[in-house]
Specification:
Length: 630
Amino acid sequence: MWQFSGGIAQQHGGERRKLPKLRNPATFWKKREKQNCNYAEGTPPESDFVEQQLEQLSRGLIIREEQLFCQDSPSEEEDQLLKDLEDLKLRMWLAIHDTFSCSSTEQLDVLRSAMAAIQLQEVQDQRWADRPESRFPVWRPLKLIRTHNSLLQKMVESRLTEAAEDELSGTDGLSSAVKRKVCRLGKRVRDDLLTVARIVKDCYPPQMDILNIYAAFYHQSFSARLTELAASGLETDDCSYLLFWVNHYYPHEILQHEDLVGKIKTACLGSLLLQDHLKGLEEQYLAHKEVQVKRCLNTALKKEEDSWLSGNKPELIDTYFFSPLAVDVIQIMNSFLSESTCVIGGQIKSHRITAYLETFLDSYRKSLEELLRGNHGNIASVIKAHLVCEEQFRDYITGQTGNLSEQQSHHCLETLTALRDCGYRYFTCPIHVQLKVCYNDLWTPAWLDGSLPVVSSLLDCLSQQLRDLADLRLDSRQSLLSVIHEELVLQYFKRMLKTRMKSKEQQVCGAERMKEDARMINDFFREEGCSQSLWFSEVLCSIAEVLCLQDPGSVQLEMVSLARRFPDFSDAHVLALLSLKTGLSATDVRAIRKSVEENRLINISNNRSPLFFSKVKVKWMDKKIKKMAL
């Protein structure tokens, strides 16, 4: 129990006399114990403590004090007044000491009355401070609020000591003594703050802000105990648990509890651990997790590689090949990131964990490239399964907000693009080899007069090739078809640029044939379920319109329209296309080029059109432009 002063020396008119020693505070603790026994036996408590309101006692003592010190000479009544004041103080401290055992309305009324009594005495302190010339009691100021706060601080420390040593608090499920101790301390902080917010707060005047007084004391004491644990050298598992309480559970689950949120000034509390201790624990945790995540990712990839090399085909799910690699890796990363975000309290520090995803994807790409260099009978099915993995990884990375840094996200997406292109080339290269023969027949006289159905033959050949992609997942198949569609149109355009049409009739006839071919190509890919690349037909039709038009002004308008829709339609492409127009003069060409440059969109970033022309290299035209010096 805590002891308070039992006697005060008093001075009057130059004389100093000893006031009689007051009763020992221990007698009041014994009295309280006796009352508790009476409660248990059904005996009513002593009426002088419960029925006599402390607020009334305080007010009566102040009146006696005022009357007494209005007299000109000392009075023996001062001794009794001082004894009664000490009795009042001890009764108030008893009421406050029993704060967390208040279970009845009567006990709460006693606490409320004690606080009202303290407020009256604080006001009386101020009255005497405003009358410095008067004869005043030597016991003033009482400073009961300061004593009250000191008592609360000791109560808090005692309650946390009691909680730390309580082995019967329901923490047996935790695996270490450190975890059990931290949990017991944290639960006591939470339960007591909620008791203050729900019950005790209403016994105090609002201006005291008692909830924040308690919060500051609990925070200080909890912090001191956790600091001792942090400095003692912790096992990694205990380190993780302590960090979880410091960075997540205490600030988010306790201080942000629905009964506390907005009422506690959390900004004034700060962290439970100083930065030096916090940094050391977080470094220990991250170093351990880095080893774990690296081992888990390497194990997942090694398992997949062993399956490839054993000749096994991936599993068929819903008629398409599937590999669990992406799902497994995403689960691994989510598990580590979810834990680390709670334990170390921020996404930026998690970048050390996500860095291993970059390394994993690089290794993954190299493993697939190495597989393609071998002669394995299961390559086609493996690539189909991992094109699905690539899409799953891409969706995961683009959906991350904060866990990956911008640089990490960019590098991961670049690696996935390289992995996807590697898989696409495995399927598209044989297709393009067979279609190349058909491309050579474009822009021949037989094609121009319609006697040679070049594109029909090309699409029939392509249809046969695509049958081997039936067991590729729909999304991946559509993406691959878009690549094939784009390559087909690019080859068509490149073949056109190599053509030299000498007459207007050839240009008009070729333009009409191009429009018909664009329609056939478009219909083919639409029927194959590839809707995302149908804009390629617009490109071919626009180019065909340039060939068909003979009036320089109309050609100029169409070229400007192309440049505004496709920001990569460069001056070299403009000149290459115009070189096919035999009816245009040099003046017409210069005017068209100038108009195209002047009417391009100023802010190219606002143009959302996909790139096409930049994939058609016309270096020969670039050299010609330089020679022309136009």
